[in-house]
Design goal:
Keywords: Membrane, Transmembrane, Transmembrane helix. By secondary structure, the chain is mostly helical. It has three domains: about 150 residues, no CATH class; about 130 residues, no CATH class; about 40 residues. It is about 45% helix and about 5% strand. Strands 1-3-2 form a three-stranded mixed beta sheet. Helix 2 packs antiparallel against helix 5, helix 3 crosses helix 5 and helix 4 crosses helix 5. The radius of gyration is 28 Å and the shape is elongated. The model has no long low-confidence stretch (mean pLDDT about 85).
């Protein structure tokens, strides 16, 4: 009797042993991770598996009636087809014979089951949003994948090269200062396609912090050439390893939620690399973010204290505030003194 393989376990099971995790990432990404080095390296695999479990749970909503995939092996088998540069229609035709015989589907149901399975495998393979889950509004940027295109073609069509402006990004331009100086909130996203996207009327920026995933994709052929390396460059820009204040801030943020701590260990950008023109894929989003950062006016006292880019304005504000505080203080002192004098006049023996 053959020994059961953990890859044939249901994706509904939340707890995975290390051996199964190693098999999954090795098969998905062509790695060579084993039990001895799963935790003895700089990569944080647990953050990915938190995403893996979340995506599987979402796909199995409504008792799994809308998806064919049931096991980890199913996901791996679909992912292998996606990496073979087959079109979406070709992948569906290869998978169609695997649909349960007991199903007597209505017209179109088979395609929906297959599309949902393909979308799940693509999300787990690339950490990007594919397909729409009808029962929830995610607000995530979904990639449009046409039936006559391969997954690789879809990725290349989405990430277009743009712009060559020579705008310098000063050292203060980092994730911590986006909030302290410009009042831009940080929202952590699990969708790489949403990286650096401003939302909520440009008051919040989405940041993809899965640096371990990115570094493991350096040799992947699924992404346009240079995209992974450039995304890692934006991580270095936002989370410079040598900035102790950014490091402390990031550690505090990671204590509130599950985050990839590899992001703060990637390094920092050299001065010559801190030019927006060096970024081809994230160029437009960096331009918008930098413009909003530069134009943002302080609205709270902490922001006024941290925002010293306009020195004259900064000194003027604090001098005016100091004058106001002193005026109020001496006004209160005079009022108290006047009150005491009146009291003495009516109670001279006190």
């Amino acid at each position: 009797m053959p020994t059961p393989d953990s890859l044939d376990d249901s994706i509904q099971l939340y707890s995975l042993d290390l051996n199964t995790k190693c098999k999954i990432i090795n098969n998905l990404w062509g790695l060579d991770v084993d039990l001895t080095n799963f935790y003895n390296n700089d990569f944080n695999f647990d953050t990915y598996f938190e995403y893996y479990h979340e995506q599987c749970s979402l796909a199995l909503h409504d008792a799994g009636r809308h998806i064919w995939v049931r096991t980890h092996r199913h996901i791996i088998d679909v992912a292998k087809l996606l990496k073979d540069q087959l079109t979406r229609d070709e992948v569906k035709e290869i998978l169609r014979p695997n649909l349960p015989v007991r199903l007597v589907p209505k017209p179109g149901i088979n395609d929906k089951l297959l599309d949902s399975s393909i979308n799940l495998a693509a999300r787990l393979l690339l950490m990007m949003e594919f397909g729409n889950l009808q029962f929830r509004f995610s607000g995530l940027t979904g990639l449009v994948w046409k039936n006559d295109k391969s997954l690789e073609d879809c990725i290349k069509e989405h990430f277009q090269v743009s712009g060559q402006e020579s705008i310098h990004l000063e050292r203060k331009f980092n994730a911590r200062n986006l909030g302290r100086i410009a009042g831009i909130q940080i929202a952590w996203t699990k969708n790489m396609a949403d990286h650096l996207r401003l939302i909520d009327d440009k008051n919040k920026v989405l940041i993809f912090h899965y640096a371990s995933f990115l570094e493991l994709q350096r040799n992947s052929q699924m992404f346009p050439e240079g995209l992974i390396e450039e995304t890692l460059q934006t991580i270095k820009l936002l989370f410079p390893r040598t900035d102790k204040k950014v490091r402390s801030w990031f550690i505090k943020e990671s204590s509130k939620r599950i985050m990839d701590t590899r992001a703060i260990k990637c390094g920092r950008l050299k001065t010559e690399d801190r030019q927006i023109g060096k970024f081809r894929f994230w160029h437009d989003r960096l331009v918008v973010l930098k413009q909003f950062y530069d134009e943002a006016e302080p609205s709270t006292l902490p922001q006024w204290w941290c925002n010293r880019r306009k020195r004259v304005q900064w000194y003027t504000f604090w001098v005016a505030l100091l004058v106001l505080v002193l005026t109020v203080f001496f006004g209160v002192v005079q009022s108290v003194e006047g009150g005491l004098q009146v009291y003495k006049a009516y109670h001279p023996s006190s």
